[in-house]
Amino acid sequence: MYEEIIEKGYSRRDFLRFCGMMGAFLGLEYSGVGQIVKAMETKTRIPVIWLHFQECTCCSESFIRSSHPIVADILLDKVSLDYTETLMAAAGYQAEENLHNTMEKYKGEYLLMVEGSIPVKNKAYCCIGGRTAYDILKEAVEGAKGIIAWGNCAVSGCVQGASPNPTGATPVHKLVRGKPIINVQGCPPIAEVMAGVVVYLLTFDRFPELDGLGRPKAFFSRRVHDTCYRRPNFDAGLFVETFDDENARKGYCLYKMGCRGPVTYNSCGVIRWNNGTSFPIQSGHPCIGCSEANFWDNGPFYKHLASFPGFGIETTADDIGLAVGAVTVAGIAAHAIATNIRKRKMIREGIIHPEEDND
Amino acid sequence: MDKIKRIYVWEIPVRFYHWLNMFCIIVLVITGYFIGSPPAIQHGAEAYFNYWFGINRFIHFLFAYIFFFNFLLRIYWAFAGNEFSRWNNFLPLKKSQWKEVIEVLKVDILQLRTWSFESRGHNALASATYFIMFLAFLLQCLTGFGMYAAMSTSWFPRLFAWFIPLVGGDMAARHIHHILMWVFILFAIVHVYLVYYHDYVERTGEASSMISGWKFVNNKD
Fold first, then answer.
1. Which residue, A4, A7, A41, B157, could crosslink B149 as a Cys pair with Cβ 3.0–4.6 Å?
2. Long-range contacts made by residues A65-68, C-beta under 8 angstroms, separation at least 24?
3. Residues A58 and A151 sit within 8 Å (Cβ to Cβ)
4. CA A241 → CA A257, A304, B125, distances in Å?
5. For residue A141, which of A91, A118, A107, A167 has the smallest C-alpha distance?
6. A236 phi/psi in degrees, rounded to 5
7. How far is Cα A46 from Cα B25, in angstroms, rounded to an integer?
8. How many angstroms separate the CA atoms of A346 and A130, rounded?
9. SS3 content of chain B, % helix, strand, coil (to 5)
10. Which CATH number fits the domain that encloses residue B209?
């Protein structure tokens, strides 16, 4: 693998810089970088099948536009990408043949990467080569060593899975049992995160440490909020009230503009996007929580509280709480009036009611 | 023989729990509401001059701990306390309890009769309501500490971290947490009113019993 990288015209320094960068992203200790270097120099290619279902290919796009050119090369050269609808040269029968050859030849060894959700309500919503996504997934899972679910579609259904979910879009982990799955969240995931996961698998031959939702802890253990450079404004109670106010110009916290940073686990604040250029909050827009389940339904994006289900859009728990509170107070007032009428009656009839003694 | 008898209903741990719980809920609701919807207190200075929102959150977390351990105390006392504070009061499992619930509804809410139903401890309807509130307390602790786990290095909130994936992430947990805040507020309104109401019509010392521990009932002996 190393030779190929050198052949491509990268220097040893480039190569080591890349390994060091990956080690840092993965939060490895210093010796870990050495292990990455060694693995990249000696390990053989991993056969990979990359399936595309109901998705927009933004995960692939994100990956190949990663900040370090070697990252894209890993995908395109270093892992043996035997089947991927978007990038492979083969088409039609040839492509299908590739898929089957890989599945047979590397049974139990290949890595299955899935981008996109799978329709289950009517499986015909997503068919490739005359077969449904569900069938293809089921077949490919059989011989897979492990599965990486790329992006929000494959992990929690994303926009296809949003209410009313006409296709019955279902994430991979709900359809697959008994195989290890890494959920790499985001719409799309950050390129360096995707590369980091692949490098980890290459280096250590095992899955990275995952959290309760199956996401790699190295990238998804902290909230965007906790790594946000605007955080001091949050703690100081300095908030943007509208997008064009003085506070927005000063770069205050976007919490009241509906920022999902406090409920979103991702490393946007650390790794950032497009070669570390920026991330949404830095550009003045609140986080929409694209690496969390149901983020389309937790709307509106520019409101800090989700709408209350069943009461139409833009009705928050606060509105309903206040309304119920008002009804309660009105009820109490009516009750109090009735009680007073009753008490007067009690006093008139004598305080001890005969039946009360039988109590 | 006296017509009216004094009975010791609420022991000290119950009263202690009640008032501390009230204080916690007031503080938690106010600080929590601010967290959910921060008022625009703008001072125009640089962020490092101020930390009021951080302090607000700190108070919320601090009282969350007090609330939780106070809640544990009450659960303990449900097994160690007297007959009025025991756990079996709160679970409407017996037929007689359901009958009493209907009785209470008839008298207190529908006001079908003029005399009051007499219950020495909690009446069955109140007990069942408190049981639901205890579940709400639990859910509030699970969602609250679960969300807190992400920003804490302590081992304690981590004990609750497993709960967040079950409800579908932090956003859902926060929503539940926020709705339950309103449940607490509505409960408090009705609860305080009903205490006044019972004291007003029953003549058993309902309101003061949570201070003194004594209630006054008709002597049947």
1. B157
2. A65/A191, A65/A274, A66/A191, A66/A192, A66/A194, A66/A195, A67/A191, A67/A192, A67/A274, A67/A275, A67/A276, A68/A17, A68/A18, A68/A21, A68/A192, A68/A195
3. yes
4. 7, 12, 45
5. A107
6. -90, 0
7. 56
8. 82
9. 70, 5, 30
10. 1.20.950.20
Query: Would you call A171 an interface residue with chain B, using a CB distance cutoff of 8 Å?
Result: no
- Which chain A residues are Cβ-neighbours of B179 within 8 angstroms? 308, 317, 321
End-to-end CA distance of chain A: give it in Å, rounded: 89
Rg (CA), chain B: 21
**Helix A92-105 crosses helix A133-142 at what angle (to 10 degrees)?**
30
CB contact under 8 A, A237 and B53: yes
Across the interface, whether the CB atoms of A349 and B114 are under 8 A apart is answered yes
The residue type of A169 is: A
Return the half-sphere exposure (C-beta side, CA atoms, 13 A cut-off) of residue B93: 5
Residue of chain A whose alpha carbon sits nearest to that of B151: A226
Which residues form the domain of B128?
4-218
Number of C-alpha atoms within 13 angstroms, CB side, residue B154? Answer: 12
Show pLDDT as tens, one digit a residue, over chain A (359 residues).
677 778 777 888 888 888 888 888 888 888 888 888 888 888 777 888 889 999 998 888 888 877 677 766 765 666 667 777 777 777 888 888 888 888 888 888 888 999 999 999 988 899 988 899 999 999 999 889 899 999 999 999 999 999 889 999 999 999 998 889 999 999 999 988 988 888 888 888 888 999 888 899 989 988 999 999 999 999 988 899 899 888 899 889 999 999 999 999 999 999 898 888 899 999 999 999 999 988 898 878 888 777 666 666 667 778 888 888 888 888 888 888 888 887 787 777 765 544 444 44
Contact B164 A305 (CB under 8 A): no
- Determine the residue type at B221: D
What's A72's DSSP letter? H
Predicted-complex ipTM score:
0.82
- Residue B86's φ and ψ, nearest 5 degrees, are -70, 155
Task: In whole angstroms, give the CA distance from residue A56 to residue A33.
Answer: 34
Shortest Cα–Cα distance, B75 to chain A (Å) = 29
